[in-house]
Amino acid sequence: MPQLVLGWLLPEEERDALLTLVPPRYPRVVAHHVTLKPGVRQDHPLPEATRGRVVGLADDDRGVQALVVEIDGTTRRPDGSTWHITWSLGPGRKPVESNDVIRQHRWKPLEPPRDIRLEPAVFASTNG
Question: What is the pTM (predicted TM-score) of this model?
Fold first, then answer.
């Protein structure tokens, strides 16, 4: 059974607009969600925020591309990592690798930043 994740889903209209703005570099397009906390129960209280801002792009040039997101005025998640949306992946790469790519390769600002709507949710992990 897949692990449940607390966070925000990227609504389809936001996803479509962002895919036009930031074309996926790798063949597997994820562009699905922002994680707040993995390993939650279905009845976990949802986060209050419903807006975010895409402020940057990270890419290791080897198969992981991620968008950096600001929520409630910060890009820093409570666990110390960075809010992000795994954008696209090359063969053999996994969404969970986005955290390492952002930390190790840093990220470049997206100019101008793009405000987005986010849907608070508990959902099945796509880290497989």
Answer: 0.94
